[in-house]
Write a structure and sequence with these properties.
This protein is of the alpha/beta class. It has one domain: Vaccinia Virus protein VP39 (Rossmann fold, 3-Layer(aba) Sandwich). Helix content is about 30%, strand content about 25%. It is built from nine helices and eleven strands. The chain has an eight-stranded mixed beta sheet with strand order 6-5-4-7-8-10-9-11, sandwiched between helices. It has a three-stranded antiparallel beta sheet with strand order 1-2-3, covered by helices on one side. α2 links the parallel β4 and β5. α1 runs parallel beside α2 and α1 runs antiparallel to α8. The longest helix is centred in the first third of the chain and has 12 residues. It is globular and about 50 Å long. The model has no long low-confidence stretch (mean pLDDT about 90).
């Protein structure tokens, strides 16, 4: 069950795992590294301060939508999350400002995406976890094509994923999105990329060139520096992997005990 710990500055936990951190006084403060890395993608999606149309698949405590609203006033953001109990809890304890430009919808992410109009978003962010796993139906080539349809020309997709060596899940996701998008990049801590531990990886996909140099500068200056992989390194990682069809889709791997504060 979701729970908000008031003594830890609005830390939201789901089934015992830290899920979101919100500072209502400063929505630009991002406690979790994966959120910082997604925010770096938001920062590079358009010139500083320019409003964006953003579709968030997965809401949590609305940390990233709040960040985007604060750094890009006038942005229009839709947040889709199937966990209505969680949304109600967040609305009660962590209400949005009336002029945030954020609209929250209690719905399945894939169903909402399928019904969304063409070329409606500058940025789509995937951060959907059923417990601690990405649901299978959000990992397929059909899902990737729907993301591509909803994005405008030059738009960007960013997804929070989690895996560990030998990266079967991550490699399948790279192969899947490579079928739809010309450019891919990964953002992750070196220890995760080297296969030393289970951890979060941010996948970035676009039909335009991704400014990986700018992303690398930003991620390298974080408290827990990350690396940006692209080009030949990703082609080597993808080699031998295939795009995920509906009939082959599985949830992302179950994290080992303690990986994200579980157990």
């Amino acid at each position: 069950m979701p729970d908000i710990d008031r003594e830890r500055a609005w830390l939201l936990t789901v089934d015992g795992a830290p899920q979101s951190y919100v500072d209502l006084a400063d929505p630009t403060y991002l406690e979790f590294e994966y959120a910082r890395r997604l925010a770096h993608v938001v920062d590079r999606a358009a010139p500083d301060g320019e409003p964006l149309d953003v579709l968030h698949l997965g809401g949590g405590a609305l940390t990233l939508p709040r960040y985007t609203a604060a750094t890009r006033p006038g942005s229009r953001q839709d947040v889709v999350d199937a966990d209505r109990a969680l949304l109600a809890l967040v609305a009660e304890h962590l209400p949005l400002p009336g002029d945030s430009g954020i609209t929250v919808h209690g719905a399945d992410a894939a169903a909402w995406l399928a019904a969304a109009p063409d070329a409606a978003a500058d940025l789509v962010i995937g951060d959907v976890f059923g417990g601690s796993r990405v649901p299978a139906h959000l990992t397929t080539i059909g899902y990737a094509r729907e993301v591509g349809r909803v994005l405008r020309d030059g738009g960007t997709y960013a997804a929070n994923l989690a895996d560990s060596a030998p990266f079967d899940f991550l490699r399948s996701q790279l192969a899947t999105f490579a079928e739809v998008f010309d450019e891919l990049a990964l953002i992750a801590e070196p220890s995760v990329l080297r296969g030393r531990r289970f951890g979060n990886v941010v996948l970035v996909a676009s039909r335009r060139e991704i400014d990986t140099a700018a992303l690398a500068r930003r991620t390298a200056s974080d408290a827990f520096p990350a690396r940006v992989e692209h080009g030949a390194a990703l082609r080597r990682l993808i080699k031998g992997a295939t795009a995920v069809r509906d009939e082959d889709a599985v949830d992302s791997p179950l994290p080992p005990s303690g990986a994200f504060g579980i157990g």
